[in-house]
Design goal:
Oligomer: single chain
Mean pLDDT: 85
Strand content: 5-15%
Length: about 270
């Protein structure tokens, strides 16, 4: 059975998923890469679009910004109050004073904010954040950023695919960690269900059990819908699907022993 059929059955059939437990590890590992290709690449594209929007807004408003320095993951400037500029439905915010807080962004539908420790992009109510701590080993001034933006236009066709690839690798790594944790929880679930399964088999079943919650949250991200208690909901669904799949493993067969009567009983 190819990975696409496995993806199909993983959407509705715990019974079929239980049969996958005898696979060699290569196939479920390939499945994880496919699943994350379907889920993280669209998210990576959204992240790249948000980054591009922030970059274009920075170029437009660069001349209006005060002198600033980005060093050790923190933005510093001699400005006395936040710079907030509204154009149509978009808002540009530059604040090194730490007066404008990240939660204040929730009141904006579409905005780009360069704050004390991060960049926040609001796109139709959906928030994307980029922490300066990712560039803590680098120092930028307004003049250097201005020169960088002039040279970055030629690099964007290379940088954007690289950004999407990095997001894909990062999300895939997190998914492998999550599957391993879920398989560990499966050790308790198999005892609860009274079934026998090795840790390797539980890991394989965990791979297919995360299909539904992974694709669900991908769709929610694409339609820019926030799911309340998303982290808890993801794990609840994944654990329940793993439990239902383990329940589909046949019960161990009981051994039937035919005891011969002893000699005294035979004589009687």
């Amino acid at each position: 059975m190819n990975v696409f059929k496995q993806l199909y059955y993983s959407l509705f059939s715990p019974k079929m998923m239980a049969r996958f437990r005898f696979q060699k590890l290569g196939k479920p590992i390939l499945y994880v890469f496919l699943l994350m290709l379907l889920s993280s690449v669209p998210i990576g594209v959204m992240t790249a679009v948000s980054f591009t929007n922030a970059y274009e807004n920075l170029k437009v408003h660069m001349s209006e910004l005060p002198e600033f320095t980005l060093e050790n993951g923190s933005l510093t400037s001699d400005q006395s109050e936040p710079l907030i500029k509204r154009e149509d439905e978009n808002t540009f915010i530059f604040d090194a004073t730490d007066e404008f807080k990240p939660d204040d962004m929730d009141s904006y539908d579409s905005a780009i904010a360069f704050l004390k420790d991060r960049i926040i992009v609001m796109d139709n109510g959906t928030r994307q954040e980029f922490n300066y701590s990712n560039f803590s080993s680098m120092t930028f001034t307004k003049q250097e950023v201005n020169e960088l933006t002039k040279n970055l236009d030629d690099l964007l066709p290379i940088f954007i695919p690289l950004l999407i690839f990095v997001v894909y690798l990062f999300q895939t790594g997190l998914k492998f960690i999550g599957i391993t944790v879920l398989a560990t929880i499966g050790l308790f679930l198999k005892s609860l269900a009274g079934r026998k399964a090795s840790y390797k088999q539980l890991w394989i079943l965990s791979v297919y059990s995360v299909t539904i919650p992974t694709l669900f949250f991908t769709i929610m991200a694409l339609i820019k819908t926030t799911v309340p208690f998303g982290f808890l909901l993801y794990w609840f669904v994944a654990i329940m699907l793993l439990y239902l799949t383990i329940k589909e493993i046949p019960l161990p067969k009981k051994r039937v022993t035919n005891e011969r009567p002893n000699s005294s009983e035979e004589k009687f």
